[in-house]
From TrEMBL:
It comes from Devosia ginsengisoli. Keywords: DNA-binding, Transcription, Transcription regulation. GO terms for molecular function: DNA binding; DNA-binding transcription factor activity. Residues 1-95 form the HTH arsR-type domain. InterPro entries: ArsR-like_HTH (IPR011991), HTH_ArsR_DNA-bd_dom (IPR001845), Metal_resp_trans_reg (IPR051011), WH-like_DNA-bd_sf (IPR036388), WH_DNA-bd_sf (IPR036390). CDD domains: HTH_ARSR. The lineage of its organism: Bacteria, Pseudomonadati, Pseudomonadota, Alphaproteobacteria, Hyphomicrobiales. This is Winged helix-turn-helix transcriptional regulator. It comes from the Bacteria. PROSITE patterns: HTH_ARSR_2. The keyword DNA-binding applies.
Length: 114
């Protein structure tokens, strides 16, 4: 990932509603959510939500897919991986043991729930 791409991601997530929307979509992976459900969950008018979704989409954080009359939005997990890798690519100066706490912190979020 290039620095300009990372800046676009951070810029998109630097607004409270967009950050909340992205986190909501991460919760609903892989099914995604229709735009109207997102707007309702955030208590934001649909035209305002449309602008937020467009910004997240331009940053590559979400993708849209038409599903009948509605548009279904999903988080782009590859982009999440890219930004996480970008942030830690020079981590620990060649001492992987220093990164173990970071890896341990990320691992529980990806374990299946019973």
């Amino acid at each position: 990932m290039e620095s300009n791409d990372a800046i676009a991601v951070f810029s998109a997530l630097s607004q409270p509603t967009r950050l909340a929307v992205f986190r909501l979509l991460m919760e609903h992976e892989p099914a995604g959510l229709p735009a109207g459900d997102i707007a309702g969950a955030m208590a934001v008018p649909q035209n305002t939500m449309s602008s937020h979704l467009a910004i997240l989409s331009r940053a590559g954080l979400i993708a849209a897919e038409r599903n009948g009359r509605s548009i279904l939005y999903r988080a782009e997990l590859d982009r999440v991986r890219e930004i996480a890798s970008f942030l830690v690519q020079d981590c620990c100066g060649g001492k992987p043991a220093l990164c173990e706490p970071l890896v341990a912190e990320l691992t529980p979020c990806c374990r299946p729930t019973d």
